[in-house]
């Protein structure tokens, strides 16, 4: 990068992009070097980054929520960005984005081979995966896309717990998790291109604190019912109401009429999890919901979802969620406190 120009950060957007991600990133990155000084000493400094919104053809469009977007440029008019942020590109967890965005993908491959840092927010990593740029790397996206990655992009090591995945940084790839993970990505990019102090100052301006605990506390078990394997789908429906019974896998095997080995193989093929992993995930999900809204003790909640041994329940919960049951309850307690005045109206 020439010392005579600002680092060029390109925000790649499309009609599937969230306005909050696109405009949030633009506002924060465009402010670096200018707004903090204005707030502290009353005199704005120089903007340190050249931030541009780009799309396939550079023409105006409307993103999610029917919000208008007027890109600065088309991707074909940008030869050498210092970094690209692929904004979220929403797609249903049932709708694999195969064959979409061919021009953007070709451009991403080119600028990456020329030395640009490629980053993504949330479902934006699906575009990087479709381009083959995540093959052989760890990467993250919103937790809801973990099954999609495992099924359709098996060469990518999906990090379900990660908010900001930096393990492929040396290969110029950085991915961020859910939609609000753009906060963490923005701070990272500011530190990389403008220095640590500017990252701290910008975080203070916008009250950005990051997600130090990762995605796990926010993750929810996705439960699509298998539609092509009748015996497995029947067991999924049954276990949803009977997760607390003793020996649940044995019950499902008996219900299916299959031998244990065949049942386990078909269950994993249909759900991506072994039967016992599925039961444990379901039990933990139910426990999380109870911790969020109920005042029962942790031990009573463990028993209610099928764990008589409270120590085992606590260990499994922390391994799955990244927080102890008590810490999880405390984390989400403030939401119920905010909601109570609303409910009382």
UniProtKB/TrEMBL annotation:
Residues 233-331 form the HTH araC/xylS-type domain. Keywords: DNA-binding, Transcription, Transcription regulation. PROSITE patterns: HTH_ARAC_FAMILY_1, HTH_ARAC_FAMILY_2. SUPFAM superfamilies: Class I glutamine amidotransferase-like, Homeodomain-like. InterPro entries: Class_I_gatase-like, DJ-1/PfpI, Homeodomain-like_sf, HTH_AraC, HTH_AraC-typ_CS, INH-QAR, Tscrpt_reg_AraC-type_HTH. GO terms for molecular function: DNA-binding transcription factor activity; sequence-specific DNA binding. The keyword Membrane does not apply. SMART domains: HTH_ARAC. It comes from the Bacteria. The keyword DNA-binding applies. PANTHER family: ARAC-FAMILY TRANSCRIPTIONAL REGULATOR, TRANSCRIPTIONAL REGULATORY PROTEIN. This is Helix-turn-helix domain-containing protein. It comes from Sneathiella chungangensis.
């Amino acid at each position: 990068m020439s010392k005579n120009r600002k680092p060029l950060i390109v925000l790649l957007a499309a009609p599937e992009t969230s306005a909050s991600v696109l405009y949030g990133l633009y506002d924060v990155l465009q402010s670096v070097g200018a707004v903090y000084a204005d707030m502290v000493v009353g005199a704005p400094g120089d903007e340190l980054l050249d931030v541009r919104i780009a799309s396939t053809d550079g023409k105006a469009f409307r993103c999610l929520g029917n919000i208008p977007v007027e890109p600065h440029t088309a991707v074909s008019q940008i030869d050498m960005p210092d970094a690209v942020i692929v904004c979220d590109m929403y797609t249903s967890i049932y709708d694999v984005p195969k064959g979409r965005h061919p021009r953007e993908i070709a451009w991403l491959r080119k600028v990456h081979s020329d030395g640009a840092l490629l980053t993504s927010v949330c479902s934006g990593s699906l575009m990087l995966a479709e381009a083959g740029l995540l093959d052989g790397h760890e990467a993250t996206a919103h937790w809801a896309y973990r099954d999609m990655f495992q099924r359709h992009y098996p060469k990518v090591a999906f990090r379900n717990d990660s908010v900001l995945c930096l393990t492929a940084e040396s290969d110029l790839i950085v991915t961020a998790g859910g939609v609000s993970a753009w906060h963490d990505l923005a701070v990272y990019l500011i530190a990389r291109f403008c220095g640590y102090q500017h990252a701290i100052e910008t975080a203070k301006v916008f009250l950005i604190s990051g997600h130090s605990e990762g995605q796990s506390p926010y993750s929810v078990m996705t439960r699509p019912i298998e539609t092509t394997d009748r015996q497995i789908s029947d067991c999924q429906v049954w276990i949803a109401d009977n997760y607390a019974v003793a020996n649940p896998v044995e019950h499902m095997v008996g219900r299916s009429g299959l031998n244990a080995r065949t049942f386990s193989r078909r269950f994993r093929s249909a759900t991506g999890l072994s039967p016992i992993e599925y039961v444990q995930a379901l039990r933990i999900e139910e426990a999380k919901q109870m911790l969020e809204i109920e005042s029962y003790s942790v031990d009573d909640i463990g028993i209610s979802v099928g764990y008589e041994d409270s120590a085992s329940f606590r260990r499994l919960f922390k391994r799955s969620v990244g927080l102890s049951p008590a810490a999880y309850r405390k984390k989400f307690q403030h939401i119920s406190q905010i909601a109570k005045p609303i409910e009382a109206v």
